[in-house]
Specification:
heterodimer, A: mainly beta, 3 helices, B: six-stranded antiparallel β-barrel, 2 helices, globular
């Protein structure tokens, strides 16, 4: 069975290189916009009623297909890519939860950008607390990783500098 | 103007007792019915053991969805609603996003509760569900 999708829009981001791109939207205060292609704008009506959106998008920058990776937050240990949010995954599909700031016709302004400029968008779903919240969540190695929540732009570059202090 | 469609390659398939739309609970919440995610052998290394992970995002393709509508109406709604404001299968790219609570992981099989997927749904991706990333406490709904 052939499964194929087409892009519904483009994410415009201040980030053009991966080292400077926040690794997850919760670590990002960066703002950007989503441009929805004209043929899909009827699906956007009333979206301003939601404070947060779930974006599904395509990791469009060419990279190897990997089944195991050493993630940014635990670079010394390789693990199955399905236990990470790494981009070099089969089907290269990304998920981010962003804050919706405003809507102007076909342009959505958002905060919490963690993708490269020009990232193709596959879907928008409204974030709904009673659907998407779970209690008693444990996330294995992620819970053990050192995450400094006060860092507003948690990038691979920052993590590298943190691991190797004094090295450019 | 837009790039060619991207071809997805399913990494597995969902086995569930739900055979038709309407049999599954909406958004899967509160459900205790188990489903299994069978990962294809060539993607086994990507799965690993999911050690210590209790919840996963499961992305699967809703192959019976209508991709040509931008407004959709549930049977109990008075009027149709724009697809990007609802969680209906009806949307240009019918990628379902579901949270599974892991019961067990056994080689290539992940047993979960909480999925509303129909039997035979192709799996596109699995990601760990992380409280700090995925629970937005201040959202409006």
């Amino acid at each position: 069975m052939e499964v194929c999708y087409s892009f519904i829009g483009i994410i415009h981001s201040p980030f053009t290189g991966q080292p400077e791109t926040p690794i997850q939207s919760v670590y990002s205060s960066a703002e950007g916009t989503i441009e929805i292609f004209p043929e899909y704008t009827d699906g956007l009506q009333e979206i301003e009623g939601f404070s947060h959106l779930i974006l599904l998008y395509h990791f469009h920058v060419e990279g190897p297909l990997r089944l195991r990776v050493a993630p940014f937050l635990d670079h010394e240990n390789e693990r199955g890519i399905f236990s990470t949010r790494h981009h070099d995954r089969p089907n290269r599909i990304g998920l981010s939860i962003v804050e919706l700031l405003s809507v102007e016709e076909t342009t959505l302004s958002i905060r919490g950008i963690d993708v490269l400029d020009g990232t193709p968008l596959l879907d928008i779903k409204p974030y709904v607390l009673r659907f998407d919240h779970r209690d008693h969540v444990r996330s294995g190695w992620i819970d053990r990783a050192d995450r400094e929540r006060e860092i507003s732009l948690f990038t691979p570059e920052y993590l590298t500098r943190k691991r190797e202090p004094g090295k450019e | 103007m837009h790039e060619d469609p991207i071809i997805l390659r399913p990494v597995g398939v969902i086995r569930s007792p739900f055979r038709a739309q309407g049999e599954a609970p909406r958004q899967g919440r509160g459900g205790t019915t188990t489903s299994t995610i069978e990962i294809f052998p060539e993607y086994g290394p990507a799965l690993g053991t999911l050690a210590g992970i209790t919840h996963i995002w499961v992305l699967y393709w809703m192959n019976r969805a209508d991709r040509n509508l931008l407004l959709a109406r549930r049977s109990d709604w008075k009027e149709a609603r724009p697809v990007f404001c609802i969680r209906s299968p009806t949307r240009p790219n019918p990628i379902a996003l579901s949270i599974g609570t892991i019961i067990s992981v056994d080689l290539l099989t992940v047993t979960v509760t909480g999925l509303e997927a129909l039997d035979g749904s192709p799996v596109i991706d699995i990601k760990p569900y992380v409280r700090d990333l995925d629970c937005i406490s201040e959202s409006d709904c």
